[in-house]
Every structure is written in C-alpha cells, then in structure tokens.
TrEMBL record:
Keywords: Methyltransferase, S-adenosyl-L-methionine, Transferase. GO terms for biological process: methylation. This is Trans-resveratrol di-O-methyltransferase. Residues 7-91 form the O-methyltransferase C-terminal domain. GO terms for molecular function: O-methyltransferase activity. The keyword GTP-binding does not apply.
Length: 118
C-alpha cells in the first residue's frame, strides 16, 4: 500500500463513471486516514456567479469546452465533485480554492465505503 495518492489535472479528462472507478482504486490502494492515508486531487472546481472566485469563470468555461472537444471529460462544480466522492465511497472531503483556477480536493474522513440503500 502507498501512504497517499495525488491526482493533478487528471480526473477532468475522464467521464463521471471512469472517475468513480479511479477514485475507488485510490481508496483501495491508500490506507485509511487513521493510518496516514490521504487522497489529494488538484483540479478545477467550476464556480458560480455568486462565488468570490467568479473572475476565473471565463477560463473555467474555456477549459470545459476544450475538454468536451478532446476528451470524454469535463470541468465539474462542487456538487458534481461531491457526487463523484459519494459514488466512490468516500465519507467526507474538503475543497480549498487556493491555486488560481485549480482547487485542492482531499478526503478528510475515513476511506471506508458509505453504506447505501442498494
């Protein structure tokens, strides 16, 4: 097992389905937080007009259109990132908008799968 996983400018290249698969693999490969494990993602988080980071919206939209043409991926907003983490079985995550158009997204809870009514 590895102690952490860092994914930079990668998940936006993939479909939601493939991102969930990638995140599940990371969860399987990285030990729980209690044992020093952590998954860190550096990627774009689309903002809304109400956000303080609205100034970068044009750049975000440009990247989103570029990805639609070149890959099956897309730029995602916070709600879409939340769904990916939930679908991959992560309990908690946090997003820090601190790197221009990029954000740091990390799991902050245990890597244990969520219980669902399936």
């Amino acid at each position: 097992m590895i102690s952490h996983s860092s994914i930079q400018w990668t998940l936006h290249d993939w479909s939601d389905e493939d991102c969930v698969k990638i995140l599940k693999r990371c969860k399987d490969a990285v030990p729980p937080k209690e044992k020093g494990g952590k998954v860190i993602i550096i990627d774009m988080v689309m903002t809304s007009r109400e956000s303080e980071h609205f100034k970068s919206e044009e750049t975000q939209l440009f990247f989103d259109m570029l990805l639609m043409v070149l890959t099956p991926g897309k730029e995602r907003n916070e709600k879409e990132w939340s769904k990916l983490f939930t679908d991959a079985g992560y309990k908690e995550y946090k997003i820090v908008n601190a790197l221009g158009v990029r954000s740091v997204i990390e799991n902050v809870g245990s890597n244990v799968l969520l219980e669902t009514d399936a």
